[in-house]
Specification:
about 20% strand; Rossmann fold; 5 helices; five-stranded parallel β-sheet; phosphoprotein; Sig_transdc_resp-reg_receiver; alpha/beta
Length: about 120
C-alpha cells in the first residue's frame, strides 16, 4: 500500500504540479482547495503526510496546521509548508504551530519529492 499525501493549495495548477510529481513516484494523493476543505477530507482516508500552502481563503495554512496538531489522529503527521511566503515571521508562525518543513515557491518538484521521501524512509 502506498503512502498518502494530502496536498492543500487554493491554486489548482500548483495542486496539479505537486500531485503529478508525487503520483509519478508512487504516492497516493488527496487534494484539498483550502484549509476548510482539507479539514473535511482529513479523516476520509489515512493521510501520512501533508503538503500545505499558507495563503488560502476560508482557512489559511497556519490555522489548518494548528487544527491538525490539535487532533489526536494527526498530531504527529508531518507537514511541509509549500508557499510563496518568505518572511521570517511567517516561517516562525509555521514552526510555532508545528510545521515540519518550509519550501518556497517557485520550487523544484524533484526537491519536494525528495523531502517527502525522507519522511517515509524507515
Amino acid at each position: 500500500m502506498s503512502n498518502t499525501v494530502m496536498v492543500v493549495d487554493d491554486s489548482s495548477s500548483f495542486r496539479t504540479v505537486v500531485t503529478l510529481a508525487l503520483k509519478r513516484v508512487g504516492y497516493g494523493v488527496v487534494e484539498a482547495s483550502d484549509g476548510r476543505d482539507a479539514v473535511r477530507k482529513l479523516d476520509a482516508q489515512p493521510i501520512d503526510l501533508i503538503v500545505c500552502d499558507v495563503n488560502m481563503p476560508e482557512m489559511d495554512g497556519i490555522s489548518f496546521v494548528r487544527h491538525v496538531r490539535g487532533t489526536v489522529k494527526h498530531r504527529r503527521t508531518p507537514v511541509i509548508m509549500l508557499t510563496t511566503e518568505t518572511s521570517d515571521a511567517k516561517k516562525q508562525a509555521g514552526r510555532d504551530v508545528g510545521a515540519n518543513a518550509w519550501i518556497t515557491k517557485p520550487f523544484q518538484p524533484s526537491k519536494l519529492v525528495e523531502m517527502v521521501g525522507n519522511y517515509f524512509k524507515g
